[in-house]
Design goal:
The complex is a heterodimer of chains A (63) and B (377). By secondary structure, chain A is mostly helical. Chain A is 32% helix and 3% strand. Chain A contains 3 helices and 1 strand; from the N terminus they run βααα. The radius of gyration of chain A is 18 Å and the shape is flat. The two termini of chain A are 26 Å apart. Chain B starts with 8 loop residues before the first strand and ends with a helix. A 9-stranded mixed beta sheet of chain B has the order 6-5-4-3-2-1-8-9-10. Chain B is of the alpha/beta class and 377 residues long. The chains are: A mainly alpha (63), B alpha/beta (377). At the A-B interface, strand 1, helix 1, helix 2 and helix 3 of A face helix 1, helix 9, strand 7 and helix 13 of B. Strand 1 of chain A pairs antiparallel with strand 7 of chain B, so a sheet runs across the interface.
Chain lengths: 63, 377
Amino acid sequence: MAVNGTVSQTAWTDKSAIQGTTATKVKAVHITELRTAVNALEGMVNNLKTCQAYNECYNCKQV
Amino acid sequence: MFLRRNINTIFLMLGNECNLNCKYCLQHPLVTHPISHEINPDIYDFMEQVCKENNGHILDIRFWGGEPLVFYPTIQEIVDEVKTRKLPIRFGLMTNGKLLNKEMIDYFIENNISISISWDGPNVLETRGYDVIKEKKDLLFKLPRLFVSAVLSSKAYPKEILEAFQELDNEYRETHNGKHIGINIDDIFNTGDVPEELLDIDYDRVSQEIEEMTYHWLDMASDNKDLNESDQYTKDYYINDLFQYAYTFYSDNPKCNNGEWDKYWCVCSNGYSTLNLGIDGKLYPCHNTSHSIGTIYDPYFKYLNNLIKEDLTFQVRDTCKDCEVISYCLGGCKMVSIENREKTYCKLKKAVFSPVLKILTELGATLNSIRGDNNGS
């Protein structure tokens, strides 16, 4: 029988504890323009959702 | 919240033997010895435990080699046992297709096992030495859903791959009620000994092709056209996939990253939410290596410690955070050395994704300008 040890409660698995504080800021070149563009195209993104067996978005893979 | 294993995918490593010898195979330098072909029955208990931890979500099991069809009897044995146990598991495999026969196709259809075929388009003989579409197309078209996956290299550029995919898609749709094939293009990886001839890529050509296709995709998106009806479906689909990376990274949608890189381990999640499990119960940091870092019997923290120690992502983080295409590669493959990143890997990532970023930036600047004008008036 596979044994993997007892899981224990931790603070650092709470994503809200790190969001906006320790996430790495990437180089902010054109970030405003990029955010505007992707948000403007969001409706299309929903229509064109492309998840498939071998190519999920990396956020979905964390679920 | 609890620190629990958060596993959505298991690559089940059946063995590392293969019946082809593809020039770009990233396993060549990473596989130093054979892995076991013997099933340890405890892996079923392990998979059952993982399923229970996932609160009933479907677990993806991907049969992996070498070439997985070399181990077809093992696949059958595992599928039968999982069915007997009624586990919430979905199966898939990626194959070169050379061993495919009607019995296998019928079995995969009957058991809802999704199949992805490796095929690089017109120059496939130069990269893989075997043209599965030429040899097995009729058999492959029996599948209710067909996925094809190519590798971008100096022998296979994006447009020629996607045009070959388009021909295949047109033909497949005729006999499948208009259903499209699934497509994917991986950028070539050099994990150590990929021949220089395949890495001698014309990066300008890659960028020009992708720029042209991105403008076409943007026209389609702006006109609110249905991607499924596009006469350049495979090209639009590929660009749409690239766009997803930008969207996921830059959007302020709560599910997205709002321009921040908040993931600290390798982007593929191999070893973390994606496990790489040998059928004897050994665990690996990646399904393309023969180097084990633990077993299913190890305490999870011990295994995790071994995994993190070898994750190159931590070493390259400072460099990657200032890179313009971080939203695409997200730190990249942990199996590619820093030296090989500098030689080709990062250049290709930039060649592929910079045109998409450039066009989105232009669009965003135009929209901001219009909004600014409107606010001013």
